[in-house]
């Protein structure tokens, strides 16, 4: 639409007579009163000496089905108040666009149409309409947004308004019932429940079902900045009081997958678990999932496969109880292997360190493990005993637990002593020598003795092997 200065065709404006075709309009300025009036066709308009055409003829604006347009500085009509308290109907998108446009326009001094300066109005499909002096079409006539079944729109209120059952999109709005304040409470005082943990997400039409006899009971006061979602499938009809923040796409959660979520505010998740602002958790439910308005998707977590040749080393970010029912203290480290699960999905409290491969010992081999964990499972959850040692003899396949390491980094060979060989050994500290189980001997630090064959001997960590000797045949 042009803004003025348009050259008129001779067959439309002849002298001071304007021939208006059907569905056209023009603006005429009274240069005596400085009042501009609207004229709509089909008609013949005669301009007086003190009048001048300042706009038009222009074609009326046509909004087809599934389209809309935005009007800046809309005119005031019967039923609208000066303070704007009764002007929310059209801003909320009530189903009365046609009725509202048919209402009488309020005129000011001198017959000038009164405007809602600085305001906006959305007009939808209906009869062609004209722009009153001062009204302006923002942009072009646009197609409404179609929301797919697997998506949603995150919406935010740009001003305070009242949401009623007559509002467009009403049945597609989903709110998060968190701590109830004046910003998200119902107008009806019966809905002023301040319990943070009693309610999860509610659909707006669920509120109306509890008070179907009184539509006002389902109304909801929306505060500036409040957010909610519009869930597809459906057609989203824009509202002046609402802006679209983003499009939320649904996610398919497969087997052994989870969603890493973070709470943007105090809320209750889909499992009816209360969440605090900033809290993080995993959503493990398989299938399609559409994040709520109070949730932020951090990432999608895939499970780690575990088998006889693979385990994972984890560290606790904070104290918690894991999925296997064991309490883990902040900073604790542990292994998860195939004896616990075939696939492990790391919790938000767990930090993945590395993948661990097994240590395989054949018959005749052994290792000395330093910083050994206790063999008792209950104690193992507490961590290693720093400085403690443990001998592990093959054949065996095992995973070294966190902080465990092999002494000198080498595998040792078991001593196989025939009858003619022996070992000279020395005690490093006092201990009970059980080389011959039937005759245990108490050894003191510094004691030396001989271990004679035939024998299969693995030195204790408290014994040092000095040398190996072989018997010689003495001939007299």
Question: Can you characterise this structure?
Answer:
The protein has 476 residues and is mainly beta. 4% of the residues lie in helices and 41% in strands. A five-stranded antiparallel β-sheet has the order 14-13-16-11-18. Strand 28 and strand 29 form a beta hairpin. The longest helix has 6 residues. The chain is rod-shaped and about 155 Å long. The relative contact order is 0.08.
Short précis:
The protein has a five-stranded antiparallel beta sheet. Strands 34, 35, 37 and 38 form a four-stranded antiparallel beta sheet that branches. The chain has a three-stranded antiparallel beta sheet with strand order 1-2-5, with no helix packed on it. The model is unreliable at 1-11 and 178-217 (pLDDT under 50). It contains four helices and 45 strands.
Shape: rod-shaped
Content of β-strand: 35-45%
| Helix content estimate | under 10%
Give me the secondary-structure category.
Answer: mainly beta
Instruction: Describe the main β-sheet briefly.
Output: 5 strands, antiparallel
Short key terms for the protein model shown above:
476 residues, mainly beta, five-stranded antiparallel beta sheet, four-stranded antiparallel beta sheet, 4 helices, 45 strands, 4% helix, disordered N terminus
Indicate the topology.
Layout: E1 13-14, E2 17-20, E3 24-30, E4 35-40, E5 43-46, E6 51-59, E7 67-72, H1 88-91, H2 97-102, E8 120-124, E9 136-143, E10 145-147, E11 151-157, E12 161-163, E13 173-175, E14 202-203, H3 204-209, E15 220-222, E16 227-231, E17 234-236, E18 242-249, E19 251-253, E20 257-263, E21 267-268, E22 274-275, E23 280-283, E24 287-289, E25 295-302, E26 304-305, E27 311-316, E28 320-321, E29 327-328, E30 333-336, E31 343-344, E32 350-356, E33 359-361, E34 365-370, H4 377-380, E35 389-393, E36 396-398, E37 405-406, E38 412-413, E39 415-417, E40 421-427, E41 431-433, E42 441-443, E43 448-452, E44 455-457, E45 463-470
Antiparallel strand pairs: 1-2, 2-5, 3-4, 3-6, 7-8, 7-9, 10-17, 11-16, 11-18, 12-15, 13-14, 13-16, 19-24, 20-23, 20-25, 21-22, 26-31, 27-30, 27-32, 28-29, 33-36, 34-35, 34-37, 34-38, 39-44, 40-43, 40-45, 41-42
